[in-house]
Structures are given as structure tokens and as C-alpha cells.
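WARN retry 2 of 3 for item q-0093 after timeout on previous attempt; input resubmitted unchanged.
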Amino acid sequence: MDVIYSKDEIQLKIEELKEYIKSNEIEKLEEGLIVFSKYGLLPELRDLLINYIEKKFVDSGKHEAAFIEYQKALAIFPEDDEIFEKIKNLAEILIEKGNTIISKKEYKVIIKSYIKLLSLIGKFNKALALISSLISQNPNDIDIMLLSAEVYETEGQIDKAVSTYLQIIDKLPKDQQIKIREQISIIDPTNKDNILNLVELYIGNKDYQSASKVLRSYLRYNQNDLDIISKIAEVDMLIGNYRSALVASKKALDADPENPKYKYVYAIVNYYNKTNLEKVEAMLNEILPELVKMKLLRESQESFKILSSINESYHYQYFELVNSLEKELREKEVEVFKEEEREEVKAALDSAELQIER
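OK item q-0093 returned
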């Protein structure tokens, strides 16, 4: 039969147990854990729990057990950065010892979660210091770079966030590139280069409505930007709004008649609208080498396709030129893929080594 204590007796016992929080005696600590848990005294439970794990497991070198117990503690106190740091430190010890309880991949997950927590609770300097240390160990770690950009963004350091995002964006899959560029368009809406690159990604996905929307949103900041106006003309053409496309393409070209990009847009808009076809042919014939030189693959390919459809002789004239650009850019993509593949292979080998150890 359980002993029933009065309210005053319980309060006295709790006050007595508070004195045990810093105790070195395991039995007293365990007694405190039971009482503090039963009566929901979380601040006392948290402090006593840390001391208990340190005294019973860490001090005696039982790092595996300590690691497991701190993970249980984190389930109770999920936003406690001190507990998280102890988990991180123990994970490093276990990996260094070649222990099988945690892999390098799992450790990376812990680190990322810890950094996110530090950012969430406003300890940005600590988060960024940890990120800096990790990047110095592996400058090509895309996940950590991406995380650092998110921390900068949360802290309000928009320039640093955007700069970090842009350092890694070309190494990411296209769908992730779109998400990041969309985020940049929110936190840095006047970044024209980002808008134009985002539009190219939308065009590649045939998402012309999103391209049109983001371009027109930018005009709120500079309604006379010729690059944006010319790109609006191209997107309107792709949507099928030829009248609007003709007006916008002419406006950009009239303002800067020597710009090869504006010439290209003016030419293709007129070509698909079946107007000024002789002028279209002459203009594309003039600018195609410039487009290749500027490494504008999509524009070069489209110009080549139109010229070849007008006269087969253009196919033989420009085939090698356009093909060389395609080959050059394809080789760069392969190099990026190989680098990503090397990272994946390295991670797989680490995982295999861990399995062998186990």
C-alpha cells in the first residue's frame, strides 16, 4: 500500500531534494529524478538530470550510455541548447573512438539540428561560429553552406544570406534552385540578377505565368528597366500575348538598339507573330555569333533553329558554332555532376566502413 503524504510533507520533501541537484551521490540524484518527474518540476528536473548523466555516465567514461540518456533528456527539453551541445560533444567523442552507435552521417544531422536550434533561440553568434568551424574543415559542404545562409537570413543579415545562397546555388538541383531564388526574391526583391535567373528557371519548366508574375512585380521598383521589359516581351510571347510582346520588345530595342539580347527578343517575337520576317532574318544572322560568345545557350539554339528554318544554308554556317557552345556547357555540367558523385561515394564509403565495424 502506497504511503500518502500531506501537501506540507510533499513540499518539505521537494525542498530537501532541491539540495540534491548538485550532489555527487547517485542515489540522491535518482530519488530527486523520481520526485521532480512526478510533480512536474521541470527546471529542477532539467538541472538534476544533467548532473545525474554527468556523474553516472560521463565521469566514468560510459559515453555510449551518456549519449543515449542525453537524447532522452532532449525529448523532454527539445529547445535546450546545453543538452544539445552535450549530445554533439559526445557524438564527436564516439566517432573519434570509432564507436558503432553513431555514424558520420548521423553526426551531421545532429550538427545541423543543433545549429537550427541555436538560430531559433537567438544564439546567432554561437551558430555562426560553429558553421565557420565546419566550413573551414570542409569548404565544399553544400548543406552547411545552405544552413549558414538560413541563419544569416533569420538574423536579418540579408546581404550575407543572399551572398551565401548564390555561392552554392548552381550546385543544387533545379527545383531547389527555384525555391532558393524565390526566397531571395522575397528577402531582396530589388535583386535584378536573381529575378532574371529565376525567370530562366521558370521558362525551363514552362512555367510562364510565374515568370510573368515575378517580372511584373519587379517593375514596382523600376518601371523603366529595359532588361525586365525585354524579358517580359519574351515571356508574353511564350504565353501567347503577341500584342503585348511586340510593344515591350520594341520599347526595349528603341531605347538600346545595339543590345544583342533586345535584338534577339524583338526578332523572335516578330518571327512567331509572322511580322518583319526579312528584318528578323538579318537581325538573327547578325547577333547569333554574339549570343554564342555571351554563352547564352537557349537564345543561341532558338536563333539557330529559326535561321535554319528560313534557309538551310544557315544550318551549315552555324552548326559547329552552336554545337561547340552546347558541348562546352555540357562538359561543365558533367564536372559539377562528378563532384557531387564524388561526395556521394565518399559518404557511401563512410557508411560502409561503419557497417563493417558493426
